[in-house]
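Hello, quick one for you while I still have it in my head. No rush at all, and the record is pasted right below.
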Amino acid sequence: QRLPSWAPLRKPVANYVERSVRAKANPDHYPAPYRILELWRSAASQEEEARSLGELLVGRTSRNLVNVFQLAEELKRRGKRHTHNIERVHVVGAGVMGADIAIWAAARGFYVSLQDRNPEILARAVKKAYGFYKKKLKAPRAVQEAMDRLMPDLNGDGLVRADLVIEAIIENVDAKRELFKQVETRVRPEALLASNTSSIPLEDIATSLKDPTRLVGLHFFNPVAQMQLVEIVRGAQSAEEALNRARGFTVALDRLPLDVKSSPGFLVNRVLMPYLIEAVMLAEEGVALADIDGAALDFGMPMGPILLADTVGLDICLSVAEELAGPLGIEVPQRLRETVAAGHLGKKSGQGFYTYDKKGKARNRGKRSVTHVPITERLILRMVNESVACLREGVVTDLDSIDAGMVYGTGFAPYLGGPMRYAETLGDVGICSTLRRLTQEYNKRFEPDAGWTQRELFQRQLPKEG
């Protein structure tokens, strides 16, 4: 709708709109809407508007947002080059992730069978699907057609017809091995097998398969309907044809396929976990939760790390942290263990680091205080340092992949363009100097990764295929 242009109304209307905008966009991060309002408030001339537009276009925010958009487009182009030949999808596990994957796939036109050994969980998934389709598709016929494509499947009868099987059960390697061992006996030889594991290397899961070449990782992020990224996990045993089909299928889901090497945590969880762990360590030290989350929000993150951990589920955070603790040397905070042991799992249990009302809104979040603890440095530089480690180890092949993964997989401050583009603005010398200072003040978890000295790693441009 057009804003009323009568001169006496301009100022109060602009002030009202600005309050609404501030609830969604920090003016220091995203100046464009505020500049537009100011131009309208002052009835600026065309020349003033043109000058302002030029300044915005060459600004940091504009350049970084354009780059983030281009990264997404490149990921789509790469995926579209591959055919997937998938019509029927079978999802095993109707919990939060499995149900959401099945619901989204059916919404995108695939025939989906959803298996779980618990009929009550299947019933909840079907009810959730109906609510989602009513809200998204609206038209009764479209809703009914989507529901017709989603079939609850208690006994796994859909396996024999499936072109793709997605495993989304508990994050336990033995359980996953046993499941795939059973699945392989029932599916067709050409069926693609995929795990939604968030941290377990595919090679560990594939040992139970007679043909491990058709196993890939399809790691979705929660909530599936909102998070655009899907990590395409390449195991040492994964065939290139299987990976290509997974890429093509992901684009058909209207999602962004990002290639990652099978390794503990892959890319997103590996980079995100030190950030979350550092937040809990800050809380252990007595730093107010409001200060921790506030520092992250001020930086430009969509949600503070404490609230994010509560939202993901503290039991899940602990499980992933323990999975990564050995191979990555991550120290798991005692407070996280104790909170989970007490049954305080976050938003889903009504209490975690925060307490939640029946609508899932955090209560008693406290007020921010003046603190001299370098909260932002400790949180963000652990992410940046881990990103460099992923480059050095070949988890991804270039900086653009990290930026795309962290912006679209976690919401890392888009106006900064991603963790590696942010690192470029600070400079590697400055970052390493800060990391060494933090190492002296705290401990070796802040030691600069060896990859900082390998200049060949720091190449721009997502690699383009053929």
Q: What stands out?
A: The radius of gyration is 24 Å. Residues 375-457 form a domain with the N-(1-d-carboxylethyl)-l-norvaline Dehydrogenase; domain 2 fold (CATH 1.10.1040.50). Strands lie at 88-92, 111-115, 150-152, 164-167, 192-195, 215-219, 229-234, 256-261, 355-356, 362-363. The CA atoms of residues 416 and 425 lie 9 Å apart.
